[in-house]
Amino acid sequence: MRIHYRLMESRDVPGVFKVDQACFSHNWTEDSYKAETNNILSNYIVAELDGEIIGFGGFWQVIDEAHITNIAVLAAYRQTGVGQNIINAMLALALEQGCVAMTLEVRADNQPAINFYLKNQFTRQGRRKDYYGTGMDGIIMWRYKLE
Prior knowledge:
The chain is an alpha+beta fold.
């Protein structure tokens, strides 16, 4: 299995949107991802296997901080290192662009994602009440050293 990791291009939007639809209940629109390809703050990595997008991750660079927008991997490719390779590529890109920290919000009930971020040296730093809708809090996580 040879997976290629690279920056997202506009031609990737349908594949990224397909992964989004398969992974999230509060989805972005396809137009949202199209807009990301023109957003100067936006940086996305895609994981591609045999011409198909199987995962992606993105962040917005706000001055010297990288704010993760989303990371998703199709269920068939989870626990295979794809998500880890995506976050590694995102960390390297953020560091290369002068970021000193990375942050995100994750659903408080998404323990697999929380464990993934903890494994990647993120720490819990706060909570956003009802961030994902009524009764669905978001956990704020930060990583202050990107190397």
